[in-house]
Amino acid sequence: MNGSSISLEQYGINVNTVIRNATAPKLYEEALANEPDSSISSVGALIVSSYEKTGRSPKDKRIVEHPSIENDVWWGKINIGMDADTFLVTRGRAIDYLNTQSRIYVVDGFAGWDA
User: Fold this and answer.
1) Cβ atoms 107, 21 nearer than 8 A
2) What's the gap between Cα 111 and its chain centre?
3) Which N-terminal stretch is annotated as signal sequence (predicted)?
């Protein structure tokens, strides 16, 4: 499937400005125009502040529990189970948040996908 053919609207995501698969120069331009604390270092690297609590911990990962994968996942402190109803609520909250943004950045990619 071609990434540009994946519609965000089919997932309930309706944002006016969607920047897809941006090049590094485009991301620099976007950061400098839209992120107040961004700048370019003396060696050309983009500097941005991620502020507090924006990093992701391995303990933030959840996997929806399902009988078909029950014995294939190493459950524990890193691979934490989540029931399907909790996933749907969490996904709904994420979609609601994305829909409040004036622009979002999308990378069309596949993780763990067998071609």
Assistant:
1) yes
2) 12
3) none
